[in-house]
Write a structure and sequence with these properties.
The structure is a single chain. The radius of gyration is 24 Å and the shape is globular. It contains one helix and 19 strands. The strands form three sheets. Strands 5-6-7-9-10-13-14-15-16-17-18-19 form a twelve-stranded antiparallel β-barrel. The chain has a three-stranded antiparallel sheet with strand order 1-2-3, with no helix packed on it. A two-stranded antiparallel sheet has the order 11-12. It has about 280 residues and is mainly beta. A hairpin with a 2-residue loop joins strand 13 and strand 14. About 5% of the residues lie in helices and about 50% in strands.
């Protein structure tokens, strides 16, 4: 008599042995196991940034990345990051407002810097952990600060998963901005990225903006919700359509003469290459 996958002989002599799995059963179990596996470091390239917020991702050693951001009021921001060591990357950035248009260019006050170090590599059980420091904010520079504050000192966690439906990553972090004149609280963010196919990817992030909700801050306490879709047009190049400040976080009456709080549309162009 056969019970399940065990073989049983006559009542007077019982010999139990393991029966071989059928090929169909084995393939089915393997398919289920592979349906949603954590992605280990190096299997699926993870983004180094969502929209404005960093992930725990790094530019690989021996490679560099260029990011060109086009934003309202003729704004242009250029960023370059380079992987100098296996766990360390550094970067520089600069830009301004009215770069595109016929008004006088209002450059940012200085070249900004960035550095990040991977403390813990991602594994099946643990997310990657990266710590860093970056002084670049986003948007208009107003009253000694960027419209969207720089992250300053930060720690970021990232966990990536792969499946038959593509790659999916979850991210989060905490930060203390260097722009503390109007609000010096600790803040943080969460976000996710999802590949649609080999060319398209969706990204979303929510910055709690706890360091931008005091009475004299630009923010009005809603936080910043941003989203984008990226298209890898050719190898090493991706073009993104970005929606910024979807929740319209800001003073509606423009009380402090600050930036317009409305949702904006931006263009992001990313390029990576070896040295």
């Amino acid at each position: 008599m056969r019970i399940g996958d065990w073989c049983v002989s006559t009542p007077t002599r019982v010999v139990i042995r393991r029966c071989l799995w059928s090929g169909g059963l084995a393939r089915g179990l393997l398919a289920v196991a592979a349906a949603c596996l954590p992605a280990t470091a190096g299997e699926v390239p993870e983004p180094t940034r969502l929209v404005d917020s960093p992930t725990a991702g790094l530019i690989e050693k021996g490679r560099f990345g260029l990011n060109l951001r086009l934003f309202p009021r003729g704004g242009v921001l250029g960023q370059i990051d380079a992987g100098v060591l296996k766990r360390l990357s550094i970067g520089l950035s600069y830009g301004g407002v009215d770069v595109i248009g016929d008004d006088s260019i209002d450059w940012y006050p200085r070249v900004e810097v960035a550095a990040r170090y991977r403390v813990i590599e991602e594994s099946e059980a643990m997310p990657a952990l990266t710590v860093g420091y970056e002084t670049q904010g986003y948007g208009v520079y107003h009253n000694g600060r960027y419209q969207f504050k720089s992250k300053g000192a930060f720690a970021a966690l990232s966990k990536n998963y792969t499946s038959s439906m593509g790659q999916f990553g979850v991210h989060g972090g905490v930060n203390m901005s260097r722009e503390v004149e109007d609000d010096n609280d600790l803040s943080g963010w969460v976000g996710a990225d999802k590949s649609i196919n080999e060319e398209l990817a969706l990204v979303a992030e929510y910055d709690f903006a706890l360091n931008d909700n005091d009475s004299d801050s630009i923010g009005s306490g809603k936080g910043f919700l941003n989203a984008s879709v990226y298209w890898a047009a050719v190898p090493n190049v991706s073009i993104g359509l970005v929606l910024k400040n979807i929740l319209k976080n800001g003073a509606e009456d423009d009380l402090f003469g600050g930036p317009d709080p409305d949702m904006t549309r931006e263009i992001s162009i990313r390029y990576t290459e070896e040295f």
